[in-house]
Specification:
Elements lengths: L2 H31 L6 H19 L2 H10 L8 H19 L2 H24 L2 H22 L5 H9 L5 H23 L2 H11 L6 H15 L6 E5 L5 E4 L2 E6 L6 H20 L15 H15 L3 H14 L1 H4 L4 H7 L17 H17 L7 H13 L25 H20 L3 H6 L4 H10 L9 H9 L6 H16 L5
Parallel strand pairs: 1-3
Antiparallel strand pairs: 2-3
Length: about 500
């Protein structure tokens, strides 16, 4: 068998496993969007069977044989072939290290745990959910032990979402960010204009859901999300799933918090545009996979924050927003609108946090996860540990578990090690934005004209087209010419929010 034939067969097998994974993803999407309440147990069984099928495809011994052939000294692979084989080796090794019965049981547990979390969140009942969460933690520990028994458990969990990432690297980056961010946040929160912004935001009331949905669909379409290859629905916790020609977004609406659905939908559309921009012919291989969750989050956070909270976006979309909600926005001046889309105030709820305080929510979750899997924190002690860190970082104490440890779906879904990607994504987004401002100084004028195509095209060329040829940190270095640093995020926040609240330089 020639190298070309072996690579072609490997690619077919890898893409088949990926396709099976997309079927499992659709089951997960349906579970959060459409599933009848009485069908939870049946869906758990379906998820378990699909996980078994996907695992069998990923661990197919033929994949191992082809990898051995292609990794031999005389294979003569080009750079793309090397990338495909490297990613296939990683996926194959991980699959073969996990017993099939464990994969099945874990999928079943996570499906049941999601529904238990949803019920516990509604009832604010952490004590009732704690045994379920403890089982999720146990599955995560066992998975890490199968995958890499020599490495710290939390490093293995981080590596699942961002290959090569370690707790030490995250701790260093988060430490630098926290040092500069906390005093900036306190200065902004204490400013008189910040109080005015909070007052204005609190005055946004009575925005009909139907009109909100129309507006955010118009916005996300103009930004570049292709609804011929995607859709938008409602779920308890907003998310994006799917790849290629079938990308699913969800949001949630509140009549008295209209910017929450808008910004959340722009965020998820950022994820979706990344998936739609990956090379379709190579889906499932390193050439058509995303570069990890930190890069994925950089795409969603860039569109949500740098774009949708910025002046150019609102110069363009502000008139349409006022047209759809004339009574609700009549009292807002242009200056008021600039404040109301960028208020800064600590909040207990992560997904409602402004972009200055948001990262502190991630620092909190990272610290708890690190201690939980380091053996320094028990599941039963999470609510009090959460409360203490919330007071320390945000100056706020949750009144109940729904405002604290139960607010996020991630732990209920077994997604340990995922949270750091949000903050790392913010850092990457700011560093990319810094580069964009150099090569396209008039980018805000583009937005004011309703032209978001240049930015999407730049991201397509430099981020999306790269697939998973590089790790997140390598990709950042290649695109920006620098190592990842919190400095760009802090500088961006100082510029934008200093201008609004502290009389600093304008963005």
């Amino acid at each position: 068998m020639s190298t070309a034939e072996a690579l072609a067969e490997l690619t077919r097998l890898v893409q088949r496993a990926h396709t099976l994974g997309t079927v499992g993803g659709l089951l997960g999407w349906d579970e959060q969007v459409n599933l009848p309440p009485g069908a939870a147990e049946q869906r758990a069984a379906q998820q378990a069977v699909m996980a078994e099928v996907m695992h069998a495809a990923a661990a197919d011994s033929r994949v191992g044989e082809l990898l051995a052939r292609l990794e031999s000294p005389g294979a003569g692979l080009d750079a793309d072939g090397v990338a495909i084989v490297r990613q296939a080796r990683r996926d194959y090794d991980q699959a073969t290290r996990l017993p099939a019965d464990f994969v099945r049981a874990k999928a079943e547990q996570e499906s049941r745990a999601f529904h238990a979390w949803a019920a516990a969140r509604e009832a604010r009942d952490f004590a009732g959910f704690a045994p379920v969460l403890a089982r999720n933690v146990d599955f995560a520990r066992r998975e890490a032990a199968f995958l890499n028994p020599a490495a710290p458990t939390y490093d293995v969990l981080l590596d699942k979402y961002d290959p090569g990432l370690t707790a030490a690297a995250v701790e260093r980056l988060f430490g630098e960010l926290r040092r500069d961010l906390v005093p900036l946040m306190r200065a902004i929160v204490a400013s008189p204009r910040a109080a005015r912004a909070r007052e204005l935001a609190a005055g946004l009331r009575g925005f009909p859901v139907e009109a909100q949905g129309r507006f955010l669909r118009e916005v996300t379409s103009r930004l570049g999300f292709d609804y011929r290859r995607g859709r938008l629905d409602v779920s308890l916790h907003p998310f994006c799933s799917g790849t290629g020609d079938d990308v699913r977004l969800t949001t949630r609406y509140r009549e008295d918090q209209p910017l929450s659905a808008l910004l959340g939908s722009v965020h998820e559309a950022g994820h979706g545009m990344y998936e739609q921009g990956l090379p379709a012919a190579h889906l499932g291989t390193a050439l058509g996979l995303n570069a990890g969750m930190a890069v994925h989050e950089s795409q969603s956070r860039l569109w949500e924050n740098q774009v949708a909270r910025g002046p150019g976006f609102w110069w363009h979309f502000g008139p349409r927003w006022r047209e759809l909600f004339p009574a609700q926005t009549a009292a807002l001046s242009a200056d008021d609108l600039a404040l109301v889309v960028a208020p800064v105030a600590p909040t207990l709820i992560r997904v409602e946090a402004d972009e200055v305080t948001y990262n502190l929510h991630i620092v909190l979750r990272f610290e708890l996860e690190r201690r939980l899997f380091g053996g320094d924190l028990a599941v039963a002690d999470l609510p009090e540990a959460w409360r203490a860190l919330s007071v320390e970082l945000l100056g706020l104490a949750p009144a109940h578990a729904g405002e604290g440890v139960l607010q996020d779906v991630h732990w209920g879904a077994g997604l340990f090690g995922y949270f750091p990607s949000y903050c790392l994504g913010n850092m990457i987004a700011a560093q990319l934005w810094s580069r964009v401002r150099v090569v396209r100084p008039g980018i805000e004028e583009d937005f004011a004209r309703g032209d978001f195509g240049w930015l999407l095209g730049w991201l397509r060329e430099h981020i999306h087209a790269a697939g998973r040829r590089h790790s997140a940190l390598e990709l950042v270095r290649a695109v920006t010419g620098e190592e990842l640093s919190p400095r760009h995020l802090v500088d961006y926040l100082r510029a934008r929010y200093g201008s609004l609240y502290l009389g600093g330089s304008s963005c």
